[in-house]
Write a structure and sequence with these properties.
Rossmann fold, Beta-Lactamase, 43% helix, ATP binding, two-component regulatory system, PAS_4, kinase, phosphoprotein
Length: 1037
Amino acid sequence: MSMARPLRVLIVEDSPDDAELMLLELRRGGLDPSWQRVETVEELRAALAQGTWEVALWDYTLPGFDSMAALPLLQQTAEDLPYIVVTGTLGEEQAAQLMRAGADDYLLKTNLARLAPAVERTLREAAVRRAHRAAEREAYRLAAIVQSSQDAIIGTTLEGTITSWNPAAERLFGYTAAETVGQSINLIIPPGLQEEERSILERLRWGERVEHFETVRGSKEGRRIPISLTVSPLRDDAGRVVGASKVARDITERRRAEAALHESEVRFHNMADHAPVMIWVTDATGACTYLNECWCRLTGMRPEQGFGAGRWEAVHPDDREKMLSVFRAASERREPFRLAFRLRRHDGDYRWAIDSGAPRLGASWEFLGYVGSVLDVTEEKCKEEALRRSESLLAEAQQLAHLGSWNWDLTSGAFHWSDEHYRIFGFEPQEPPITLDRALDRVHPEDRARFQDLFDQTIRDRRPYECTFRLILDDGAVRIVQSRGRPAVNEGDELVRMFGTIQDVTERTQTEQALRESEERFQVALSASPGIVVFGQDMALRYTWAYNPQFGDTVEDLLGKTDAEILNQEDAARVTAVKRRVLHGGVRVREEMTITREETRTYDLTVEPLRDPSGQVTGITCVAVDITHRKRLEKALLRAKEAAEAANRAKDEFLANVSHEIRTPFGAILGMTELVLDTSLTDDQRQCLETVKSEADSLLHLVEELLDFEKIEAGKLDLVPADFSLRTMMADTLRALAERARMKGLELEWIVEPDVPDALVGDADRLRQVLLNLVSNAVKFTKRGEVAARVQVVEGPAPGEEIVLRFTVRDTGIGIPPDARERIFRAFEQADSSTTREFGGTGLGLTISARLVGLIGGEIRVESEPGEGSTFAFTARFGRQPHPSEKVDAQPAVAVHEAAPTAAAAPLRILVAEDSGFNSRHIDRLLGRRGHLVRVATDGRQALNLLGEDAFDLLLLDLHMPELDGFQVARAIRERERAAGGHLPVIALTARARPEDRERCLTAGMDDYLSKPVRAAELFATIDRVVSGYGGPGPGS
């Protein structure tokens, strides 16, 4: 189904029904009307003004509407609008009248079926009429153009016969149209050019157009006229070429102008090529069209290489974009421009140049392009740069030296100051012009009159001046300046200007004043210090100056002399050798020298090189301090120090021996008491023996506390860090106190929080000592309830870092009054005297504990309420073992009640090396009661022999025995094992319970350490720990 053709219809009809019937017929005829119905002249006028219509359907008979009178309105408003009369009744005369008036067709409403075809036909006819009218108008327009054209327009046949000749042709060639039409075109063709004409006509036959062909034609007067000829083919209705239309333009004036231009360009090129500057020319597009020889010589480029955009290739890459931007901006505004840039020379070097361009305009002021020159200004640029650098250096030098310059033109009164001059006076550089009054306002009031008088005198006497005065700046700061000025006269000896400098010498003046004061103080100090000599010497080591010479010499006695002239030969040689080392090495030397003249004196001699501004050594300066008295004091002090150290060593050895001698009998007392308590006794006997054991323990603890306190006070208690298991240490420590707590009916418990690591590095013995002190105090001062110990993390570490733990000991004992909480940490003091009477003690335990906590990187605190108990807490810092042997699970709270550990499950073969018969018998009985097999050696050599004869599971080794001591025995055993294999556990026994003794034991290869007197609980606990570490009883069992 084909698409309906759109149609814009204006319907002049008073009946809507008739209008609807018309539209229906149009749609049936394949049209798609868009329409408007009008009934009056006013509506018609409005519709014609508002819309563009293709056809009008007009009812001839409308009430109050004169169709014939309204037709002129339609023809004036819409001249090309076709209209068809549609009416109910229409006579032949009326129809003829309407057709003559311009109607395109008419039909009756009874025959509307013809409406769509009539509309189609009318539209076609209207289109043809419009085309004819357009063609006529175009023909009239072309005829008018031909007649009014300034160019000669000639029509010819293909044979060359002239068919038309316009007025311009008459004016150009002198022939009238009457004289030429019908004649051959050869009438105006000069001899020899007929073949040219035939060639043109032949090209036309093939439909080719000839444009702007320049040639010559003849006039009626016989003058040869240069013309530009454009020839176009003329065609008939069938499109065949039937003739030619020739347009001839007189180019005589253009030829003259071109000749003149050519002559001008030749002159320009001749001048430009010989000019000492580079010259270029562009067209209106900016493309280069000319470069003179100077440009080509400097750049090394051929002209054709620089044409177009090529000349920009010679511009430095960093300058190219800027030049193009300036050139384009100037071209858009048709303005001159001037720009500095770098131009590449033929050897690749870049030269500074100035490019100046100006627009070129034609005779009619049309823009033709640019012409410009390029001037090599490299030398000038270098001079400018050198001048700029010189000025910059001068400005920097003035600023560094605080030196300004000034110039006063007396004829104009104008002042010129350098930037630094402005800064010295507290002004911003290049502020409004400076006047003499404004400058004088800055001068200190006390100096102003003096400066003004000096300045006036300089002008009057025409002599240079120099003076120093003070300035007061806006912020109140006072600066000291030194001013110099000089007058200048002209050829007529007239004063025309003054110039000079001003320098800020505040720091220099202050420094000079400080130096003078320092020298005065130095001389006073040296005068008051007779033991100090200061002097200088030149390269020949002759004295050039001196202060405080010794041995009765004066400064005059020394000047110009050498050491050989004032000292004995030996001393002079030694002193001179030291000074020559300084002169030749250029380094500072300090030595102690002994000089003998009237008496022998010792000097601390410091010698330093003196250098000139270039760094060359020009002499030396020396300071000799008489230290004779100090040296004597040092020797006396050394003797006293050696005596004190000997006394300390004797005291230490004495204390060690005291410890040994006290522990030995206590070993007998405690050992035998423990053995007897392990037998069947009456209650009275057991009570008496337990009292003996308790008092002996207290007395031994008192001795240990006193010895430890002495070491702490002497600063000789050192930490011995080592790997240890926190939980094992806690268990071993609190196990020893379990029996005491049990006997008092107390519950002793401890807990280590799950996040506390077990494998630590620190001094476990000192940690154990603190815990023993705190827990034993808690047990001592608690009658009922419990004692609890807890370990928590305070600062959790990153891997490999230290960890801080908090240890808390809480009891339900008697408590501590608030006023006594600080006093209990002081030596030999307890809460009050009644505490001492009831519970005993030296008052050293907490003092020692506090000192030990400080050593292990923590602090101890106490919280307490009288009658409710106390809580002691301390922190300690430990290292982490890098590779702990095993991961310890969370440690639950453990209530400790057992009095002693169990013995090894299987009997052991134990060798006891002990020279004390009592100690050996005591240990033999303790071990025998646990089922172990014991052999005793009374010296070190016997112990080694027995070990060579038999196999043992354990060696208890006294450190101090005849023949071979315990250290020698342990080293011998380990040497054997390195050769034969195996490992015999060794536990050291000693009455010297010093940390250094334990460290020596472990270093010598022993596995553990017991201090005497040997307690059963500690003995069996140590045996269990050592033997279990090596898999229990060995082959000797």
